[in-house]
Amino acid sequence: MAESGNKVIAVTNLAKSYGDIKAVDGISFEVSQGEVFGMLGPNGAGKTTTVEIVEGLRPADGGTATVLGLDVSKDTRAVKERIGVQPQSPALFPSLTVRETIGFFASLYRKPLPASRVVEMAALQASHKVQFKNLSGGQQQRLSVALAFVNDPDIIFLDEPTTGLDPQARRTMWDVIETFRHTGKTVVLTTHYMEEAQRLCDRIAIMDYGKIIAMDTPQRLIEAHTRESAIQFKMKDYPGDEVITGLTGVCKMHRDGDEIIVYTNNIPSTIAALLGMASQRSAEISELSVRQPTLEDVFLKLTGKRIRD
Ligand code: ATP
């Protein structure tokens, strides 16, 4: 199981600034072999900077990072041979087919995986003769993720692998990543999609302003930080926060534009009080839903903001 396995990544007090911006502000974490480790945070939280330091692509200002026991600042070349990094789609050649693209990347390594295996991992068997420029956005993204596997690495780094994909393409990508994880490899994934982190990751580090503000399994993060259920709704003629927090059972609330989330230990009483109040004021409530707490609620509680702010 992930947590008891060999540590394949160890990061201690890592720091990196750009001028006055502390992009990475003294973070420490370890990743075990076979684990899917997620770094979750809003734009600018410092995820990419962290991951690129660990990959040996950027120097740190302070702290240490080791990958498979190798110091990434000194043994950069050896680290690069043992890790797989997803190239960004714009770096790929528009006129090469799927198979040719894989062949090109494979030629850069001594012991690449067979191209057919990589095509299969990308779930692109039916499109292996199609030029990159003619693939759909989701197919292009799957190919770029699969290229991280070409050198049969021990650790794969995926930086926001599903950003910009529609829900269907995102789910297909999740299947692809889950197929990868069954090969026993370690995966480090950055994302700002809560659902993605919750579904794919064994453990998650939640980042904000260059710091790790919480780190655990998705389930334990939710249990530790949010015990209440969430009632979410929209309301016309909003009566004010004090009216909402005064409703029976409400422990706390959050408002984002016209969307309101209240947290409660007593769903029936809170809903009854909410609907009673709305009818008294002739205020229209729409899109009402009751749900169990998610990582989004954990993030909201820890930072006071939605992750997509
Ligand atoms: P995103 O989800 O948008 O990719 P992120 O969590 O990966 O965000 P980073 O890209 O690591 O965040 O950026 C962290 C902070 O460091 C941001 O404020 C960013 O503007 C700044 N930053 C990152 N790289 C550079 C750079 N090369 N030069 C100047 N500032 C940078």
Protein architecture, described:
The structure is a single chain. The mean pLDDT is 89. This protein folds into 2 domains: 212 residues, Rossmann fold (3-Layer(aba) Sandwich), CATH 3.40.50; 65 residues, Alpha-Beta Plaits. The strands form 3 sheets. A 6-stranded mixed sheet has the order 6-7-8-3-9-10, with helices on both faces. Strands 2-1-4-5 form a 4-stranded antiparallel sheet, with helices on one face. It has a 4-stranded antiparallel sheet with strand order 12-13-11-14. The protein has 309 residues and is α/β, with parallel strands linked by helices. Helices cover 32% and strands 29% of the residues.
Layout: helices, strands, pairs:
Blueprint: E1 7-18, E2 21-32, E3 36-40, H1 47-54, E4 62-67, E5 70-71, H2 76-82, E6 83-85, H3 98-106, H4 115-121, H5 137-146, E7 155-159, H6 167-181, E8 186-191, H7 194-200, E9 203-208, E10 211-216, H8 218-225, E11 229-235, H9 241-245, E12 250-256, E13 259-264, H10 267-280, E14 285-291, H11 295-303
Parallel strand pairs: 3-8, 3-9, 6-7, 7-8
Antiparallel strand pairs: 1-2, 1-4, 4-5, 9-10, 11-13, 11-14, 12-13
Helix pairs in contact: 3-4, 5-6, 8-11
Bound molecules: adenosine-5'-triphosphate (ATP).
The site of adenosine-5'-triphosphate (ATP) has 12 residues, from β2 and α1.
Features:
6-stranded mixed sheet; Rossmann fold; binds adenosine-5'-triphosphate; 11 helices; alpha/beta; 32% helix; 309 residues; 2 domains; 4-stranded antiparallel sheet
Q: Remind me, CATH topology of the largest domain?
A: Rossmann fold
Q: What is the class of the largest domain in the CATH system?
A: Alpha Beta
Which percent band covers the strand fraction? 25-35%
The DSSP helix count reads 11
Terminal residue distance = 35 Å
Helicity range: 25-40%
Main β-sheet, spatial strand arrangement: 6-7-8-3-9-10
Unreliable runs: none
**String of helices and strands:** EEEHEEHEHHHEHEHEEHEHEEHEH
For the biggest sheet, the summary is: 6 strands, mixed
Class derived from helix and strand content: alpha/beta
- Reported CATH architecture of the largest domain: 3-Layer(aba) Sandwich
Count of individual domains: 2
Q: For the residues shown, what is the average pLDDT?
A: 89
What overall form do the CA principal axes indicate? globular
Record field, number of beta strands: 14
Q: Rg from C-alpha positions?
A: 22 Å
Specify the CATH homologous superfamily of the largest domain. P-loop containing nucleotide triphosphate hydrolases
Give a list of the ligands.
adenosine-5'-triphosphate
